[in-house]
Specification:
Elements lengths: L1 E4 L1 E7 L8 E12 L7 E7 L2 E7 L4 E4 L2 H9 L1 H29 L7 E12 L5 E9 L2 E7 L4 E3 L6 H8 L2 H25 L1 H4 L6 E6 L6 E8 L4 E7 L2 E2 L4 E3 L3 E2 L5 E7 L12 E9 L3 E4 L3 E11 L3 E8 L5 E3 L2 H4 L4 E9 H8 L9
Antiparallel strand pairs: 1-20, 2-23, 3-4, 3-7, 4-5, 5-6, 7-8, 8-9, 9-10, 11-12, 11-21, 12-17, 13-14, 13-18, 15-17, 16-17, 18-23, 19-22, 20-21
Length: 362
């Protein structure tokens, strides 16, 4: 067992040099044909990549995941009625008819078929810019999407051209889409952020781990338990981000409303003398609610597992702890974006591996 002092770099940057903080509201509709044990039509509402509720159009049931979302609909019964009407009547009927039409268009008589729609908006809470989107996919491929600037529909597949021409000529449909995607949905998103402020606008730091299955396997840097999802994880050499010999994983949700991500580094061409030149960097974009993170201390412990027979999994887990001070009104008024950066040296991990005695457990 050994202790490792970790380095934490916390920087402030003016908006010109920092990515804007954007919030999103997404409605994901999935309809199916040929799946007897799967709902024919399900709609999920997602705010900043967090599932806040969904409904089953076939069973006419809803499931709200947070008390603050229930409060929103209690205070806004018109919105509740919209959701019920859309989920229980409009969407199931529209998607069922559309799937039947597409099966004929694609010359399909049976089998499993999936029609999906992703609609909603992004809202920049600093520039106030709104971006609306509405796109359809059929059997795993893009089918149709809206272009609000040209007020037309984009058809990437030949089978979608007929629908594109029909919807391009339907000016009322376009106006309705514009209203929902750029006016109504952004208003709802702002309301959700207000009601769910303590949950949606919180900041949680990750636990950062370095994992290696065998001595010849890539070293995986895993960050888990962070929030919000606006984060990056990279390997660096001599302070420069690496783009070769690395494999980036996607940002994935955890069951508790936080996120995880990983990035692998191929060590096959790295000599022990060069270990100190590498580090893993986690960067989290947060608002001025948290303006300072002080020294981070990682306690590294060695845990050895037997996997199947001779395969061993060596894991060094580094828990990240920190202390914060909240922003003063003077600091908050500058409207800075902030980044928390955690540096995890590769040399510490690999040097520790050299001291581990590989054991066999029955």
């Amino acid at each position: 067992m050994m202790s490792v002092m970790m380095t934490c770099i916390y920087t402030e940057c003016i908006n010109l040099f920092c990515p804007a903080v954007k919030h999103s509201l997404k409605f994901i509709t999935t309809a199916s044909s040929g799946l007897p044990d799967f709902p024919e039509c399900v709609v999920a509402a997602v705010v900043d990549e967090i599932l806040v509720g969904y409904c089953d159009g076939s069973k006419k049931t809803t499931d709200l995941k947070h008390d603050w979302m229930k409060k929103v609909l209690e205070d806004d019964p018109h919105q509740l009625e919209y959701y019920k009407g859309a989920c229980f009547d409009i969407m199931p009927t529209f998607f069922k008819l559309t799937i039947n039409s597409l099966k004929q268009r694609f010359n399909q008589s049976g089998g499993v078929h999936i029609l999906q729609r992703l609609s909603g908006c992004e809202w920049d809470d600093e520039t106030r810019e709104v971006i609306g989107f509405n796109q359809y996919g059929y059997d795993g491929e893009d089918f149709l999407s809206i272009d609000l600037k040209t007020e037309t529909w984009i058809a990437p597949r030949q089978q979608a051209v007929l629908t594109k021409l029909k919807w391009d000529a339907d000016k009322a449909r376009m106006k309705s889409n514009q209203n929902y995607l750029t006016v109504i949905f952004p208003e709802w998103l702002k309301k959700y952020l207000d009601y769910g402020r303590s949950f949606l606008l919180r900041t949680e730091l990750p636990s950062v781990s370095l994992l290696q299955k065998t001595r010849s396997s890539p070293v995986s840097c895993l960050a888990t338990g962070f929030y919000p999802h606006r984060a990056s994880l990279v390997w660096r050499k001599d302070g420069e981000e690496l783009h070769e010999e690395v494999d980036h994983g996607e940002i994935l949700p955890n069951h508790d409303g936080t996120f995880q991500m990983s990035v692998d580094l191929n060590l096959s061409s790295v000599t022990p003398e060069d270990w100190t030149r590498y580090d893993c960097v986690f960067q989290l974009s947060v608002k001025p609610m948290v303006v300072l993170a002080v020294i981070l201390i990682g306690a590294a412990g060695f845990i050895i597992y037997k996997k199947k027979k001779a395969a061993m999994l060596t894991r060094i887990v580094t828990k990240v702890h920190s202390n914060f001070i909240t922003s003063s009104s003077a600091v908050a008024s500058r409207h800075y974006a902030h980044f928390l950066v955690i540096l995890l040296p590769l040399s510490t991990f690999l040097q520790a591996l050299g001291r581990v005695i590989f054991l066999s457990f029955e």
